[in-house]
Amino acid sequence: MVLIQAIIEIFPDLTKGLAITITVLIGAAFFGYLFAFIAGLCRLSSKLFLRKFTGLYVEIFRGTSLIVQLFWLYYAIPMLFGIELGSNWWAGVIAISLNYGAYMSEIVRGSILAVAKGQSEAAIALNMSRYQRMRFVILPQAIRMMLPEFGNYSIQMLKATSLVSLIGMEDILYHGNIIRSTNLSQAPIVYLLVLVFYFILALPLIFLTRKMESFSKKGVASG
Amino acid sequence: MNNWSWDVFVDAFPKIIDGLAITLALTIVCYVFALVFGFFWLFIKMIPLNSLRWLVTWMMEFIRSTPPLVQLFFIYFAWPMVPVVGFALDEFTSAVLGLGIHFSTYIAEVYRSGIEVVGKGQWEAAKALNFSKRRKWTKIILPQAIPPTIPMLGNYLIIMFKEVPLASTIGVAGILHIANSYGAQNWTYLEPLTIVAILFLILSYPSAIIINRLEKKMNRRFDKKETLTRSKGATA
Questions:
Q1: Mutate to test the interface with B, among A79, A172, A209 (most CBs of B within 10 A)
Q2: For A72-98, what is each residue's pLDDT tens digit?
Q3: Is residue B1 domain-resident?
Q4: How high is the ipTM of this complex?
Q5: Neighbours of B235 (CB within 10 A)
Q6: Which domains does chain A possess?
């Protein structure tokens, strides 16, 4: 009974953080996919500078950890340039989206390269322009291959949103920490509930990912 | 760029380097723990009991899709408070358990994918040759299952290295923790955090290149094997 009472007490407090977690996730996912497409396409560009520059971006952000990038954006950038990022919401969203954008750009690049060469040759034979080739022939096939990986990365991004509590954003974990610091003996229930919160948020993403996996396999000769 | 100070950089650099040993040690210990614990998941899933398998599958899904940071807090702050079974753990052990268990669920998937690579015919051949269970695994299954997983496991070592700074949140004195406390003391985060970023980059980038090469080598080897068996099949 004590347990249920504690859960009833803690639950509403944790829901206060739900809005921040979800908005950070949506922001990070939106910009993350955007960066992924921009960087992925730039790496396939014929311009050497563009290729090298995005290559540098991808390697830097894949080579260091997200938590370091987040702290760097939040603490170091304002010191370096004397500018503020506006809010810690933006610092969190930009750090997560730049980091996962770098990872996902490799997915974009790999999927585009994985489209059979005959497809683009056929498009050339049909006298399509470079843009048309990409838009109507390559991308529709490549995006199918990207979808399951994008689903996986959206779960990763959800997990990453918990880091914004470290830069003072009041997300689920932040509220959990507050409750724990006022009542130490409740720590197990608090963190278990926080974990359950994240898992419930992840469930739709898990099912979506599975659906995308079957969708991307449907009607395609495996080979 | 007027806020950058080389004096601070030179002052902070040796202090942060001191934390590198702990960061690397934590990476290795977490990684070994995850490798061993990955087998645990694999074996427990092999027990032919549907309800248990279902439970374990969801447990792994739960661990995999919730933030490692919260799991770390759970083990460090909450585990000592759990009635009956709970006991206090120091920061390093908590980090090993938290990150190790989190990554073991990924490692278990790698093992599983390795075993799935081995074709059905190989299992049947082992049976047809009347191999004992031990010989089947050591002579037929594992020699084929292990090589393709090596680059994947290498990748997870690099990923682990990049997740280890999470342990600074519970006070493990790795490079990020030292950089943060240096920043708080001297009120300058720019140089110490930049040093941390550079250290991560120069350690993880070359390892990533090595893994990449290894992967290409493995792929080539396996393509060769495939064509070899295919040509054999054609002549037989």
A1: A79
A2: 888 888 777 777 666 888 889 999 999
A3: no
A4: 0.88
A5: 5
A6: 2-217 (1.10.3720.10)
